[in-house]
Amino acid sequence: MKDDNLKDMYEGSFATLKEGEIIKGRILKVLGNVVIVDLGFKSEGILPIEEFRSREEAKEGDEVFVFLERLENRQGVPVISKKRADFKMIWNTLQERYEKEEPVEAVVKKKVKGGLLVEIFGRVEAFLPASHVDLKPSDDVDELIGKEIKVKITQMNPEKLNLIVSRRLVLEEERMKAKERLFSQIKVGEVYEVTVKNLTDFGLFCDLNGVDVLLPISEIAWDRVDNLSETFAPGQKIKTKVIAFDKSAEKVTVSLKQLTPHPWAKIEEKYPIGSRIKGKVTSLTEYGAFVEVEKGVEGLIHISEMSWTKTIHHPSQILRVGDEVEVIVLDIDRENRRISLGLKQTTPDPWSVVDEKYKIGDRVFCTAKFFRDYGVFCEIEEGIEGLIRNQDLSWTKKVNHPKEVIKKGQRLEAVILDINKERRRILLSLKHTKEDPLYQFFKTYKENDVLRVKVLDIPPTGLVVSLPFGLEGFVHQNQLRERERRLKDAYKIGQELELSISKIDLEKRRILLSERGKKEREEELKEKPLPKVKKKFRLEDHLK
Question: How many CA atoms lie within 13 A of 60 on its CB side?
Answer without folding.
Answer: 6
